[in-house]
Fold this sequence. Notes:
The model has no long low-confidence stretch (mean pLDDT 93). The strands form five sheets. Strands 5, 6, 7, 8, 9, 10, 11, 14 and 17 form a nine-stranded antiparallel beta sheet that branches. The chain has helices at 7-16, 32-42, 68-75, 82-89, 174-184, 199-205, 214-221, 297-319, 348-359, 378-388; strands at 20-23, 47-50, 60-62, 99-100, 109-112, 134-135, 139-143, 150-154, 157-161, 164-167, 189-195, 226-229, 236-238, 243-249, 255-257, 271-273, 275-283, 289-291, 323-328, 336-341, 365-370, 395-402, 415-423. Helix content is 24%, strand content 25%. By secondary structure, it is of the alpha+beta class.
Amino acid sequence: xxxxxxxxxxxxxxxxxxxxxxxxxxxxxxxxxxxxxxxxxxxxxxxxxxxxxxxxxxxxxxxxxxxxxxxxxxxxxxxxxxxxxxxxxxxxxxxxxxxxxxxxxxxxxxxxxxxxxxxxxxxxxxxxxxxxxxxxxxxxxxxxxxxxxxxxxxxxxxxxxxxxxxxxxxxxxxxxxxxxxxxxxxxxxxxxxxxxxxxxxxxxxxxxxxxxxxxxxxxxxxxxxxxxxxxxxxxxxxxxxxxxxxxxxxxxxxxxxxxxxxxxxxxxxxxxxxxxxxxxxxxxxxxxxxxxxxxxxxxxxxxxxxxxxxxxxxxxxxxxxxxxxxxxxxxxxxxxxxxxxxxxxxxxxxxxxxxxxxxxxxxxxxxxxxxxxxxxxxxxxxxxxxxxxxxxxxxxxxxxxxxxxxxxxxxxxxxxxxxxxxxxxxxxxxxxxxxxxxxxxxxxxxx
Length: 447
């Protein structure tokens, strides 16, 4: 397979694998582009590269890592190996530091000062309830003002004006901690937004990691990510990004920002958020803008599936060495975990589900299936639920559990009831039935 090192090489890999479609029909940035991309994600289609965007000469790419097949291509492995590859990459002992270089592709074109206007970028208005155009696929690059270590994160950014973006940041994020250090000194926090990246960097940015997330990207690729200092900010930025927006968060400034479609499938509310003042926009020749459709598959994959599956798998395997697979289903908004188990004891499924619940607060529903069930196929999981579960005996509740405060079924503190389901087959209640199987064939030989 072609070596991936930036967005363009990844597009070539997707195209070779039949996972890229070039949309040449003109599309509007307001709703239409996101509608097409979301439909492709929903129907299992390829990732779209919109080559004709109304009002812009730049193409827009979406859905880079929106399903298991694309995650495998991005990580350079088979679909069944995704969790293991991520588990290794998230191990700090495997991290590979970035490599500083003298120049960057995005330095080909630089606009600073009064000439800056972020409204010239092809930033979509994704969903109909969104508060306006949002940058969703940009990775925030920042630096700890105390230790100097780098940091990657995702922060939604609403267009406020030519040089201002609303900048949403949760209290628990590292960039929020950096901002508070600077605010205590009444000083701004310099940051940069990198858009159009090697998916290894995009995936790394979705992880909760105590070091520099670029080390994760290095571990995925087996070599350090090239980085280069910003034009107006003292930050090391991925050198092969398509577009870079530089600027700072001024201290003690908050403005209303939002709403935006959220990972749970509902609209978030308007938050009093910091404001990002833009000092430079930089881009490489013929740049490609990249977006993530908010509240949809890739949003969940980047923020929940890829960074958290290894954690849950570790907890589940600590309880049972017979766990052979685990998947956080994107159609469950990150709240549903499915575990494959070679069951040896009738109590194993319940213990495994309990381990998954304690591994991460997000998980509210855990389904344990036999290893013959494809945990990545919703139809196969539903078949197991339908044919292997007695609802009066194979379901258990964990009331009063800590969940995610944004879960619509929880109270304002995130407290709700979790549910575990033993969807394994042999429970000793009747003679075991043999599952119907047909062999896989290469349909291209027949069609």
